[in-house]
Amino acid sequence: MNQSVSISEDQRDCLQEIVNVAMGQAGDSLARFLEVFIHLSVPRIKLVEANTLMGTLESMVGSIDQVSAVRQGFYSSEDGQGLRGEAIVVFSQTSFVELAELLAYDQEINESGEKELLLDITNILNGACLTGVAEQMETELSFSAPSILGHQVNLRDLIPAEELAWLQALLVEINYTLEDRDFKCSLLLLMPGDAIEVVKSALDTLLDDLD
User: Fold this and answer.
1) Phi-psi region for residue 193, left (φ > 0), alpha (ψ -120 to 50) or beta?
2) CA-CA distance, 174 to 28, in Å (whole number)?
3) SS3 at position 177
């Protein structure tokens, strides 16, 4: 790990406040879409190394036999030098039958239908949350198409460390649960490498404006 990369308490608090607002917008979007109350966790923020990522996710999400996950890249249009990273939604507790009922799906919930549900939920959460973060940081983001990272697989098999193209990343975790429903998911924002410095610079600007 590059020891020079760190986040001050002021920067962490500022980012947590930004994420709080953005995750509230995402939770509201999902609640309106599903017509059910959404419980939100306090966001957790930390720097992680590639070779410790899965252990970190396991400690955050919990040791669960089977998970499903969707990944989606995001980036600003500042010549590749702006805010960028990956949003990963890990579904650690999901009743596809209940979700299908909430969404009024009229097709059979087979593996294909389950993956479609995951993509639908991910689009709602990522779109609202990342847009909220970008607006507060006064930037605009573009998104890659979401893709299934894993469907009912072991958590530690989701992202092999050797497949990661970065050594260190800023990780933000947000948990969502549905009231009286068998559903829980975690939205993970990973901003690697030089994107960490972009985030820190944006946070410093916001903090300076408050002085």
Assistant:
1) left
2) 14
3) strand
